[in-house]
Amino acid sequence: AFKAAVLIQQWYRRHVARLEMRRRCTWRIFQSIEYSCEQDQIKLHNFFSYLMDQFTPSSSKERDFISRMFVSGESYKEAELEKYCDYESIEVPDSYTGPHLSFPLLPDHATALLEAFQQKQQLHARYVLNLLHETRKHLKQLPNISHVSTCYSEEITVCGDLHGQLDDLFLIFYKNGLPSPSKSYVFNGDFVDRGKQSLEILVILFTFLLIYPKEVHLNRGNHEDHMVNLRYGFTKEVMQKYKVHGKKILRMFQNVFCWLPLATLIDQKVLIIHGGISDTTDLDMLEKIQRNRFVSVLRLKKRKESSGKPQIQAINGESESGTDAAPRLSLQPQTAQAPSTANRREFSRWLRQTVQEQIDTCRRLVDISESEPEELTYSSMVSLKDADEPCWTLQEEWKQVLDILWSDPMPQEGCRENKVRGGGCYFGPDVTEKFLEKYSLQFLIRSHECKQEGYEFCHSRKVLTIFSASNYYEIGSNRGAYVKLGPDLIPHFVQYQANKTAHLLTMTQRQGFLVALFAKISRVEESAFRALREKLFAHTSALISAFKSYDRDNTGKITLSNWATAVESVLRLGLPWRMLRPQLVRSAEDGMLEYKSWLDDLAMEQRSQEHIQSSLLEVIYRNRSNLETIFRIIDRDHSGLISFEEFQQTWKLFSSHMNIELTDDGINDLVRSIDFNKDGNIDFNEFLEAFRLVRQCP
């Protein structure tokens, strides 16, 4: 009996170890695919920004269109924004049965919203715009770094990413209680995208923020960015839920996002930021910058930089950085040739005109309106107070914001560029230690990364990651968590899974636990490998080229080791392909793989889902997310349709980059040929149908 018990124990341990290995591989697949999508987003944005940098508009109409392509809420002045988003002109019909809001808000309003959203009701557009208007006014008075003390409440609850998963927010409130004078919350960014109820989450959080401004604190995340929203779903969600007033609501959301605080400091000892830090993170700078300038953190980065300092043309018109410099402000008048000084009156008139033009140019560059006085905000008061302090370039300020929103910790020492995400940096334990010592902090709390248990310590428990969206990749893939801090600043964690099915998997009996664990891992694993096979199919052409480089005798076969090397060289996901091979390669004789038949099997699997030509299906699978993002960028009014004018102006941008000369008549013929149903607009299906992969011959 003793020997049998030992054998059972050994079998059990081996089985659990295998399950753990499978669980970790599945996790790596999900995370690698997620980060590669973020890389694609940043590459796509950099490409469009490059086109805009190189494009010279031929008319004021083209200049206005191009300037609006990536510009959002900040292009509106205060009065213009209020006029554009005038909620008072929107009437609430008598047939409306949803919740009603009146300001100032009361706790009963929050309760009514929670009940309405649980019943799948929708808040009227008038109330949404009114709420955003009041939220924006409140946020503008807040500092960049919110200061919170445990002296005023027994404990402070910190929540991580929610990503539009309203059930997780409901579960947090059910377990921990609603915000109140004795229950403080810090929500650490990434409220939106991916999930289907981002808007409801924001409405609830903004409502509690206005009711309890001292107890509810919101940090900005990297997804509170209108360029990221174009790809990951929030823009689409708003336009689907509010078809009439969706554009106004989006505009207000985008402007509110840029006023969200960047960090929260608890008792001067615990810093809460969304992403992380770098070796150049400076809290003094973060406290003083004008955060509302960074409507999209992805927007500022330039491709043409010869030095870290801004390039200014010298008085004589020659650049210190050479002729290959980026566009810059010229200090020399260039409006017209100066008249002779003999005619004093004419010379004086010319001089006044030139100076005024330069002043107007400077005003446009720094976005200052002559007719409208700037509203006094916390950031502007700090800037006036510290006018004698060293000033920083916009590039330096942008780098600070980018790093705290996009960075991730790493186990190795040092600080290096985060190439996996495409933005921010990786920071090591030495960077953390120096930062904490410099600012007399105990530890950092950040979010930004999904963790299987909902939270994770690293850097000798000096960095805590908290993630509150459970079942993030798939049902059962991860738990959500939040952390509570009392006056002793010792973290206490609460974990959960919002989906009811996940709760049924918890069993007390060991046998039942194994069955449930195996079923959960199998389901999540199946979803991960399905996504990975789609990724492989989307790169069929590149994989064939890579396989042929190892098949020099044209046998149609390669070794499994070469298969793993070739796949990683194409996909660059950093996955253990040799370990994943049994799930991806069904048959291999004598350690050799017939790669063409393997790719045919992948194509057959995808074609069974969508009846499209294989070569075109490969292209669409590989580029669908990028195509959808491009479509939304061109669709400036978010109507779901590209107008002929929007297409024409964007095509001019592309043609100038590709050195293709095309007349306006030629562009008109092209756009009419894409408009298959001849309704005067291009919808997404027509846009996809017109898309073809063109391989340029050298």
From TrEMBL:
Key words, A-Z: Calcium, Hydrolase, Manganese, Metal-binding, Repeat
Gene Ontology biological-process annotations: detection of stimulus involved in sensory perception; negative regulation of MAPK cascade
SUPFAM superfamilies (UniProt xref): EF-hand, Metallo-dependent phosphatases
Domain of life where this protein originates: Eukaryota
GO MF term set: calcium ion binding; Hsp90 protein binding; iron ion binding; manganese ion binding; protein serine/threonine phosphatase activity
Residues annotated as domain EF-hand: 538-573, 622-657, 662-697
Gene3D superfamilies: 3.60.21.10, EF-hand
Compositionally biased tracts (Polar residues): 308-322, 331-342
Database matches in Pfam families: EF-hand_7, Metallophos, PPP5
Start and end residues of each stretch annotated as Disordered: 308-344
SMART domains recorded: EFh, PP2Ac
Catalytic activity entry: O-phospho-L-threonyl-[protein] + H2O = L-threonyl-[protein] + phosphate; O-phospho-L-seryl-[protein] + H2O = L-seryl-[protein] + phosphate
EC number: 3.1.3.16
Cofactor(s), names only, from the UniProt record: Mn(2+)
PANTHER family, alphabetized: SERINE/THREONINE-PROTEIN PHOSPHATASE 5-RELATED, SERINE_THREONINE-PROTEIN PHOSPHATASE WITH EF-HANDS 2
Family: Belongs to the PPP phosphatase family.
This protein's name: Serine/threonine-protein phosphatase
Organism, as annotated: Agelaius phoeniceus
